[in-house]
Design goal:
Distance between the termini: 60 Å
Oligomer: single chain
Shape: globular
Largest sheet: 3 strands, antiparallel
Strand content: 5-15%
Structural class: alpha+beta
Order of helices and strands: HHHEEHEEEEHHEHHH
Number of strands: 7
C-alpha cells in the first residue's frame, strides 16, 4: 500500500512539473532571435573598452586636405542579392520592415538611440557612421588604401553603422565625442564602447581631448 501511494504521488508531481519545464524552455520569437544575432558581439564591456582605449595611440589630428566622401564611399556596398549595406542595416535595426522587390524599405518603425525618437518613415532616418568618415580620415584613414576605406564605410561586423534620426545625424556631422554626444545620456556608454571598438580594430589614433571625453562617457556604464 505504501508503494502504491508513492507511485501515485510521483505521477502527480510529474504532471505538475512538465508544464513548468515547457514554459521555461519555450523558444524566443523569431524577431527577437534575429535581433540578438544582428547585434551579437557588437558591444564590449566597459572594462574591456577602457583597456582598448588605453592601447590607442594619442596624436594630433591629420589635415582634412584631400578628403571627400567618395574616398570612402562612392556608394553603399552590396551585401546580399539586391540589398546594399544601408538597406541591410535598416532591416536589421527596424521593426516590421517591409521591402520592395529592389530591397528598399517602404515601411517600418525605427528607434533612434541618439535622441530616443521612434520614426515610422524611412525618409526620417539615416544610417550613421559612429566614427564619421571625415573624422576617421583625420585619425589615420587618410593613409589607407581605397579598398580599406571602403571596407570601413560598409563594415557590418563592428558597431560602426547604426540607424538614427536624420536630425540627430545632421546635428552630429563629422564631430568627435569631445564636441558632440548623443542627446540621450543613457546611450553614452554604448556610444563610447562602439567608438572605441571601431578605432581599436582599425588602429586609428585618438586626440587627447577625445580620449578624455571617451573616458568620461565610460563612467556612465552600469549606472
Amino acid at each position: 500500500m505504501i508503494f502504491l501511494r508513492r507511485a501515485v504521488l510521483m505521477a502527480v508531481l510529474a504532471l505538475l512539473v512538465i508544464p513548468i519545464t515547457e514554459v521555461v524552455a519555450a523558444p524566443q520569437p523569431a524577431a527577437a532571435q534575429s535581433g540578438a544575432r544582428a547585434h551579437a558581439g557588437a558591444q564590449v564591456s566597459a572594462a574591456r573598452a577602457r583597456r582598448m582605449l588605453a592601447q590607442l595611440r594619442v596624436a594630433r589630428p591629420l589635415s582634412l586636405r584631400g578628403y571627400t566622401h567618395r574616398r570612402f564611399q562612392p556608394r553603399w556596398g552590396r551585401h546580399k542579392g539586391r540589398c546594399d549595406v544601408r538597406e541591410t542595416v535598416l532591416a536589421r535595426d527596424g521593426r516590421r520592415v517591409r521591402r520592395n522587390a529592389a530591397c528598399h524599405p517602404v515601411k517600418g518603425v525605427w528607434y533612434s538611440p541618439y535622441d530616443g525618437r521612434r520614426l515610422k518613415s524611412e525618409r526620417m532616418v539615416d544610417v550613421d557612421h559612429v566614427v564619421p568618415l571625415a573624422y576617421a580620415w583625420r585619425s589615420g584613414a587618410k593613409r589607407w588604401s581605397q579598398a580599406r576605406r571602403r571596407a570601413f564605410a560598409n563594415d557590418l561586423t563592428r558597431p560602426e553603422l547604426v540607424t538614427v534620426s536624420h536630425s540627430a545625424n545632421i546635428a552630429k556631422g563629422g564631430q568627435g565625442p569631445q564636441s558632440w554626444r548623443p542627446r540621450r545620456r543613457a546611450y553614452w556608454c554604448r556610444y563610447a564602447t562602439s567608438w572605441i571598438t571601431v578605432k581599436h580594430h582599425y588602429r586609428l589614433f585618438v586626440t587627447r581631448s577625445e580620449r578624455v571625453a571617451l573616458s568620461n562617457m565610460l563612467r556612465t556604464c552600469g549606472r
